[in-house]
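#struct-help
A.M.: can someone run this one for me? Single chain, 384 residues.
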Amino acid sequence: MLVRPEFSRERLTAIREARGLTMAEIGRRLGVSPTAVQSWETGKAAPTVLNVNELGQILGVSSRYFFQNDSPRGPVPGKDLIFFRSLADLPAKLKKQATRRVQWLQQIFSLIEEHVDFPDHKAWEEFDGTRIDYSKREIEVMAAQARRILGLNNESPILNLVDSIEKSGIVVAQMAIANTVDAFSYWPKEGRPYILLDSIKDSPGRLRFNAAHELGHMVLHRQVREKDLNRKLFREIERQADMFAASLLMPSETFAERVQYFGTRLEDLMDLKREWRVSMMAVVHRMKDLELIGSLEAQGLYKKMSRMGFRRSEPGDEYVPYEEPSFLPQAFDLLESSNKAFKEFIRIKMGLPDSDLDSLIGAKVFQKTERITQNRGPNVVDLF
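D.P.: on it. Structure tokens below:
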């Protein structure tokens, strides 16, 4: 006897929030009331076959997506703390949208991890991340400890931060959410940490700083609860994560020596930017923080950069290589080489369009090849 699959209200909520749509917007497009959409998401009623087909068209998924058994795993919007840049000012809709994409990433990674050995992340657990009252000195020390975990045994500029983070066991991905979201991170109670960088941004120095900032949240604040933070404390932990990022990317002693060598004039900032692979603005902030320049000199540099349009677009980005995550694309390449059906296995398990899957992985993996439909289970591959 065939059992008719049930409509998954959880999957409807997940895909709606991932697309950044409200119940009212869905209802308007379907020609039904927001109350009707709410009843589908609470399980009080089920949509008609016609409604399901139209939902699929609106939300960019096939109708079978709504009848899969897998409920969304990972962080829950409004309950689990995901660290966003400018978290206190981010609209709730964008938080939900980003959170749902983290769920997808966590789900797809769990499927890959069953067949691939990734680097261990346990070294990061030496930081308990329970406080919000760190001193400047403590943050400098913890940034130095983080450098050691990243395999950096000196204070030289980090050549590829994203690669170093991935090799330390943290999952790094890129996805386009909105111009207001630079980066965000999440560390589940069980499992490895995730850092997501916004692919919309076009400044490689800014991307590196954002990655370091999110790593700072993991080291300093991973067990801090959102309900314990007010607006003032949000700003404080953002300040601490910025300080960590600057300390990680520009260690105090070596950076100070190089500033003394190059100088502190506006034209000198380009040399420092090229060497340390950060923005000129970050260089000025760090010089001021280390008291290598005074407040008046820093203010003068800020004004000159603003006048020259550097706050919108800095010169010299061509000297800073653009860093992209590589572990997930590499994993898929290896898995595909051992089993051509693996991509179709992921398609079926995730139920998402190829464009969404490629966005999660950070490469044109699913959209570049023909579908393979034979039903074979994936093999196990040692990756790293």
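A.M.: thanks! The two ends are 46 Å apart (CA to CA).
D.P.: also worth noting: Residues 162 and 270 are 22 Å apart (CA to CA).
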